[in-house]
Amino acid sequence: xxxxxxxxxxxxxxxxxxxxxxxxxxxxxxxxxxxxxxxxxxxxxxxxxxxxxxxxxxxxxxxxxxxxxxxxxxxxxxxxxxxxxxxxxxxxxxxxxxxxxxxxxxxxxxxxxxxxxxxxxxxxxxxxxxxxxxxxxxxxxxxxxxxxxxxxxxxxxxxxxxxxxxxxxxxxxxxxxxxxxxxxxxxxxxxxxxxxxxxxxxxxxxxxxxxxxxxxxxxxxxxxxxxxxxxxxxxxxxxxxxxxxxxxxxxxxxxxxxxxxxxxxxxxx
Length: 269
Ligand SMILES: Nc1ncnc2c1ncn2[C@@H]1O[C@H](COP(=O)(O)OP(=O)(O)OP(=O)(O)O)[C@@H](O)[C@H]1O
Ligand SMILES: [Mg+2]
Prior knowledge:
The protein is of the alpha/beta class. Helices cover 40% and strands 13% of the residues. It has a 7-stranded mixed beta sheet with strand order 3-4-2-5-1-6-7, sandwiched between helices. Helix 1 (24-37) packs across helix 12. The protein starts with 10 loop residues before the first strand and ends with a helix. Mean pLDDT is 93; it is low at 1-7. It binds adenosine-5'-triphosphate and magnesium ion.
C-alpha cells in the first residue's frame, strides 16, 4: 500500500535517441508544456551540453549560474538549480556547455551512473510536487544518457519520419536492455513517437508502417506533424503551445500528453 500521506513522487521520463536532430528537445519542451497545461507540475532537466531546451524556454545564458552540472557533481540546493519558465507549472534545470566535461569527470566517480537518480530522489524534491520530470538527453549514448536511463521510470523515443530512422533503434534498445539487467530493472519504454511526420510524403508513411510492424503498441498513435510553427517557437523562447496555441503542432503535443497520461493510468490500473 502506498503511504497516503506521502506523494508517490514524479514520473520520470527520459527523452532519448542517440541520433541527432530527431526532435528530442522539441518533444521535451512541448510535451512538458502540454502536460503543464493540464495542471500537472512539470520539471524539465536539460541534460544536453548544447542547452537547447534551456534556450528554447528562454533561460538566458546569464541566468544559468547553476545548472544540471551542479545537480550532478556539486552539493547544491534544489532551489538554486530549479528555475521557473514562462509557462505556468513548468520549471527547468538548465544546462550549459560545462556539462560536456561532466561526462568525462563522471568516469572516475564510483556512483557515476546513479548521480541523477539520487539527485532527483532527494527528499527536498517532494516539496515541489512535480508530477512529471522530463529529461532531455544529448544525441549520444554517453554517461549523461546512462544517468538519465538509470534515473528514469521510462524512456520516450522520438523517431524522425525519415529514411534510416529505424537503424539506430536496435542500438538504443540494446542499451536499454543492459540498463535493465544492471542498474534499473524496472525501466520501461514509454513509447516511440513519430516526429516531423508528413502524411503527403511516402517516406513518412513507410517509416510509420515499419515502426508499427516492428514495434507494435510501443508506437504512440499520435504523430507529430512537420509544422513550421513548431520550428519557429524556440526562437521566440516559447513552447509552440504558447507561440501558436491553435497550430497543428500544438494540438499534436496536447494529444501526445493525453495519450501518455492514459497509458500511465492503464499501467497503474
Ligand atoms: N514537428 C516539427 N516540425 C518542424 N520542425 C521540427 C519539428 N520537430 C523538430 N523540428 C526541428 O528539427 C530540428 C531538430 O529538432 P530538435 O532540436 O528537437 O532535435 P534533437 O533530437 O533534440 O536534436 P539534438 O540531437 O541535436 O539534441 C530543429 O530545428 C527543430 O526546430
Ligand atoms: Mg536536443
